Recover the amino acids of this structure.
């Protein structure tokens, strides 16, 4: 990022859109955060800074997957700080409902490439309408074993349908415990 942003500034002089300057400022803000916490890997921090400096919309695909819990929290905190400081918007792709709860104001639940349900994140957590959304939330790992025993959810069985040549029907129908005749011919419209 340093080389890229410096080249933008020095090769052509200051850019009218401020891209090079934003990249340099973003790099400095991330590096100061990183220096205060050596647990954050420089490559992760700089990748986030580069994306944030160049575009106000950042697509983050599983940004904290496979990271230690303490590092996850630091990366998510950094993302929130950059969002507040620089007016960023994120498209967050995740299977981790805890990350979704912390990072998003709106959510869309997808299955085999189609949106099954969408809405404000709080509303989605409070009231799940589509059976796939219910199953997804029921499968969430709960740190309290007693609470997990009392969690009601949709049991999903069966094979995942082909995403290559899908039928014009609900893609979740083969696995849905609430399957109806109309599910075989109509793809429900998300609410």
């Amino acid at each position: 990022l340093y080389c890229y942003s410096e080249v933008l500034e020095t090769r052509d002089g200051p850019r009218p859109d401020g891209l090079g300057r934003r990249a340099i400022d973003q790099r400095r803000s991330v590096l100061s955060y990183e220096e205060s916490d050596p647990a954050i890997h420089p490559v992760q921090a700089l990748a986030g800074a580069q994306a944030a400096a160049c575009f106000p919309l950042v697509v983050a695909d599983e940004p904290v997957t496979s990271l230690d819990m303490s590092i996850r929290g630091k990366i998510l905190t950094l993302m929130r700080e950059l969002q507040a400081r620089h007016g960023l918007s994120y498209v967050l792709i995740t299977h981790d409902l805890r990350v979704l709860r912390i990072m998003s104001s709106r959510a869309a639940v997808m299955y085999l490439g189609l949106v099954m349900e969408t809405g404000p994140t709080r509303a989605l957590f409070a009231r799940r309408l589509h059976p796939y959304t219910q199953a997804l939330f029921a499968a969430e790992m709960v740190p309290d074993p007693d609470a997990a025993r009392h969690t009601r959810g949709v049991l999903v069985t069966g094979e995942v349908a082909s995403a290559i040549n899908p039928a014009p029907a609900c893609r979740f129908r083969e696995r849905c415990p609430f399957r109806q005749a109309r599910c075989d011919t109509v793809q429900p419209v998300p609410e």
